[in-house]
UniProtKB/TrEMBL annotation:
GO terms for cellular component: membrane. It comes from Neopipo cinnamomea. This is EMB protein. Keywords: Disulfide bond, Membrane, Repeat, Transmembrane, Transmembrane helix. One of its GO terms (biological process) is cell-cell adhesion. Residues 32-113, 119-217 form the Ig-like domain. SMART domains: IG. CDD domains: Ig. The lineage of its organism: Eukaryota, Metazoa, Chordata, Craniata, Vertebrata. PANTHER family: CONTACTIN, PROTEIN SIDEKICK. Pfam families: Ig_3. Gene3D superfamilies: Immunoglobulins. PROSITE patterns: IG_LIKE.
Amino acid sequence: GPDVTTQDLKQPSKEHQSNGSFVQSEILLPGPPGTLLERNITLANATTVELSCKLDPDSHLKSPQVTWKRGNETISHTSKTENSWSIKLVIVDSSNMGSYSCVLKGKEEISATFHLHVPKIEAREKPIITYERDTAVMVCKTHSTPMAWTWYMMSGSKPVVINESLRTDKYLIDRLSANVTRLRILKLTKEDAGVYWCEAAFELGKSEGKVKLKVLSIMAPLKPFVAIVAEVIILVTTIILYELYSKRKGK
């Protein structure tokens, strides 16, 4: 599949886990027509990664010049066969993450890219819309287990950590499971509206998910009703005044 995670290493022929953690991923070039030559690899903890680019034996590109790059920096491959070139990386911190590409040059040039990143956070994409005095509930989750969860809110132009030092009668944080965290904001006011985000800390870096909160006045649902009532009152008043005017004119 297009994505590899350290939790999905069940097929020894493609990705497997040995002492510590070891991930293998290979891209066949040039691949079938329309193939996107990119691979996302999700890593949470220190891992040894082997990335390989294999030239299709039926390709008309023969004896290409092969270059590996990390971003724009050229690096050397660690092993090669007749039609395959590999690099082995020991990923120990966030500085080793990023995009690694192999470039094959001959009569034409083809390339493939591996993206190494920490697990993504699943959070609500659409804004949460609620009313004053209600409770807002925000949930973040990830498929890997982070070392720690942290919630933030924007106060003015600065982020503020939501923790035990803030009002416990206002903010409640629950870790529903190792992979899921929940923030509850009680007794909402209009001042609570804004951007909140959760941050998951992994051994190889941090990942975050943002949630936008909108707080409406408790009168907001009544506005359409009030507008209709006002229109009815104006219409009835107009009819009554017209009838009174008609009667006086008749007299």
